[in-house]
Amino acid sequence: MNERLRDLEYTLLLALLRLGDESYGVPIRDEIAARTGRVLSLGALYTTLDRLEGKGFITSRMAAPTAVRGGRRKKMCRLTVAGKRALSATWDFQQRMTDGLEAQLDDLRSAPFATGGDCG
Amino acid sequence: MADDSTRPTAPMPPRISRWFVNTLSRTFGNPDLREALLGDLDEDFRRRAASDPRRARADYRLDAWRSITALIRRPARSTQLASSAGESFMSIFLDDLRLAARNLSRATGFSLIVVLTLALGIGSVTAVYTLVDGVVLRPLPFDDPDTLVAVWGTNAETGAGRFTSSYPDFADFRERSDSFEILAAANAYPANVAGVHDRPARLTVGHITHDLFDLLGTRVLRGRELEPADDRRGAEPVALIAESMWRRDFGGDDRQSAVLGRTVTIDGIAHTIVGVVRNPHYPADAELFVPLEPQGGTTVRGVHNIFVVGRLAAGVPMATATADLERIAVQLGEEHGGENLTRCLRLQPLHESMVGNLRQPFALLLGAAAFVLLIACANISNLVLHRAARRGREVATRAALGASTGQLLRQFFAESLWLVSAGGSLGFVFAWLGKEIQLRQIPTTLPRAEEIALDGRILLFGFGVTCVVAIGFALMPLLEVARRDLFCQLGAGGRTQGATSSRQQVRRGLVVAEVALAVILVVGAGLMIRSMLRLSDVDPGFDPDRTLVMPLQLETPFISEDWPQTLELFNRLSERLTALPGVVGVTAGYQDPADPGWGSSFTIEGEPVPEPGHEPEAAWRPVGLDYFETLGIPLLRGRQFETTDSAENAGVVIVNQAFLDQHLPAEPEPVGRTINKSSWWVSEIQQLRIIGVVGDVKFSGRHLSAEPALYFAHRQFPVPQMKLLVRTAGEPLAMADAVRQAVWDLEPDLPIGVLTTLDEKLASSLAYRSFLAQLLSFFGASALFLSALGLYGVLAYSMSQRTREIGLRVALGAQRPDVISLVMRQGLTLTAVGLALGLGGAWAMTRYLESVLFGVDRGDPLTLAAVAGTILLVSLLAAWVPTRRALRISPTRALQEE
């Protein structure tokens, strides 16, 4: 199972890894927003989690309802072994591609034309 | 964080957004996803709301919307393709809906155009239906309305006319006829009413026989209804009020029926309120009702001023009742002679008598709206066909992979369902907006306007229309799928020429039909606009500019012993108002020049005496000094009224040109001739010398010809109700408060009616036509726009199909003009056929407009030419974009594409 992850999937799995054992929508979104400034919609987040679950990269369970959530339950997600493996494969792939480019990539980041590009 | 307890007064998340997420996440997600998503949204909201509740709500909405979009657009999971016999119908259907929503969300432009087009069509039809339903279709708000009839007087010779009756005649009908369960009478006119508002006011008072409300089935809410004893002369004056007035002006139930026993003063006579009734809707506009007691003018058989309504006795057909009344009319003629000899009677269902004349114009509007819907449907069919063609390959692939025709059809149906429900919902929003706009534009004279409402009936109607549309264009792709040769599609890369050309035939046919329908609507609108222009060019005969109309009535009977005081007061009022800064001129008239008023019979000395009952009638118009000068009515001969034309001196009269033309056509010197008129009152002057001739004024509206009129000097006919006409230097209504205050400075308790301007009154006589013209113009413009869109679609599609052909032609040496003519020719051919059919259709349909046209023939060449020009111009515009696209085709690229 050497499938590489899509951008959003990768981001979510990384967030889950950071948050430790088990987590759910709000903290995952907060984590991503705090680190990258990108605010996902909860709908996008859940459709991606759903897809990750379908691929076997995470498992989930429904927790007990709480008042602050209007009596709704949380969907607690956890990385599976396959998920961790996919994460490391993607990371590995990126590492190989960026290996030795660190200095150049740093330069690009500070250059004014760093964003956007012409693909012809 | 998760287990924070909420405060009891915590702000709530936006309900509508939450409802959408709840509903759609069920359709597009699964129960767990919905649960988690809603919970997270709530949790996030509560956290943010602690610092800024408003911002939190905004964030919730944004997040909800983005989440819904994400759910809908998420790619199908592999399990959804394997719909099999094992799955329930519901889950298959939901899958179809999901897939359809995804497909549509990727074709945003297509979806948007279809939804808007549909909404325009459904909205137009529903909005007009709301109007028609409220005014014409809905049964009258009375008990058993089918047996209610209006009794009208007619001309015995011609059988024509709809005249009101006199009280003595009515009393005889009631006594001698046994065709009616109840026969009642009513009239309504404005009176000075004190005791309802802070100041005395001019209110419409209904004068009714005691059994009118019994007849209509009007319920009594408090107190009692009228009794036979109340109708008698000399009875204690009593009044009933309508529920609306009770709630608004008497506090309704808050004061525990304290309204009973209170006194209202109507034209100086104290009436005790004895009951509150549900709003009776008849006589129109009245909220205060008093017994119609025979007194004053009402006792005279020749004064026809009451409306008679009846309820047919059980089992008595209209014809029998009519024959019965005709018999009585003949008897009355024999017994009383005079006018009774020339009057007959006829019955009309009450519903027809109230709104019958509106049936045709309203049917016309409904038809116009239906045309817009038809064009919208044709357009959508075109778009759907277009899309089906572009998806030919997708469809063929899916079919080859084992999708049955049923499955394909289900998917098309699901797409239609989304589009139609979105279009239908938006259509209702448009209908509601349309209704609000209509209510603002509607002529105030429209009967039953208060009954116009967007309710369950209308929703049902709109829903029905929507369903018909949905089925209609769900079938369109089916036909397409059914006759498609799938393998051929696959092989030819989705571009089979045979299927394309027959499909193009259908699409061209639809566009021709669209153009034809649009032409009919635009011709209708054009004719109405021309009529309005013609009408506004017609000289009304007076200058309406910057003139306030202020109705006043002194608290005296029609003509009383107090007349010197009456005149004195009007003089003082005129002086006072003339002295106001900003006032240019002041005069008075029993009617203003835009008021039809009423007529009276007369004879001219020295002319052949007419047969009794056949005396001619002329408009009867007492006016103040300077009337003609102030209002810009030209004096053609003789002189104006002067202060010496008073009661002590000889009677004088001024006639208009129409009077001369009709009654003294051969007289070289009309000034000095004498007119005799019958009198209603003992003191009234009966012999009048013509002292002047003035220009014609179109009292009844600019669309009618001027009627003969007799102007009397107010000083010789001191009626106590007059309208003061105040010409101002600036905007007249800005002076309204100052003018009112000036009157109240002199007479603090004098009730003043609603102030208007002559301009407004003149415009309101055209309000009905202008309303029709506006609606038809709106429909015409919509139709034009939609059909241009349709034409554009067909040409654009045809160009995309012919890219290769055009490329080849260019490669072989075709020049720009050749390419232009190639595209334009196709567009203009379709337009020309549509135009020809449309003009033919317009000739057939505008027949129904004829009654409201003015000064323009329905075959008016100018209108027809303008319409043809507009259609051609719009078609050229619609064809322009595809033409430019065709010009840009590069031959090398076009040929490589295959």
Describe the structure.
The complex is a heterodimer of chains A (about 120) and B (about 900). By secondary structure, chain A is mainly alpha-helical. Chain A has a single domain, classed as Arc Repressor Mutant, subunit A (Orthogonal Bundle), CATH 1.10.10. Chain A has five helices and two strands. Chain A has helices at about 5-20, 25-35, 40-55, 80-100, 100-110; strands at about 60, 75-80. In chain A, helix 1 crosses helix 2 and helix 1 (about 5-20) crosses helix 4. The longest helix of chain A has 18 residues, at about 80-100. Chain A is globular. Chain A starts with 6 loop residues before the first helix and ends in a 10-residue tail after the last helix. Chain B is of the alpha+beta class. Chain B folds into four domains: about 15-75, no CATH class; about 160-340, no CATH class; about 360-535 and about 765-895, no CATH class; about 555-750, no CATH class. Chain B has 27 helices and 21 strands. In chain B, strand 6 and strand 7 form a beta hairpin. In chain B, helix 23 packs parallel to helix 26. The longest helix of chain B is centred in the middle third of the chain and has 41 residues, at about 495-535. Chains A and B meet through helix 2 and helix 3 of A and helix 2 and helix 3 of B.
- The rounded Rg of chain A comes to 17 Å
State the order of secondary-structure elements of chain A, H for helix, E for strand.
HHHEEHH
- Please, how many domains of chain A? 1
Number of strands of chain A: 2
Uncertain runs of chain A with pLDDT below 50, 5 residues or more? 114-120
**What is the name of the CATH class of chain A?**
Mainly Alpha
Percentage of residues in helical conformation of chain B: 40-55%
- Label the overall shape of chain B: globular
Strand order of the largest sheet of chain A: 1-2
Q: Biggest β-sheet of chain B: count, sense, barrel? A: 6 strands, mixed, barrel
- Quaternary organisation of the protein chains: heterodimer
Give Rg of chain B in angstroms.
36 Å
The average pLDDT score of chain A comes to 82
CATH architecture of chain A: Orthogonal Bundle
Which two protein chains have the largest interface (Cβ within 8 Å of the partner's Cβ), and how many residues from each? A-B, 26 and 32 residues
Structural class of chain B: alpha+beta
**Overall number of strands of chain B:** 21
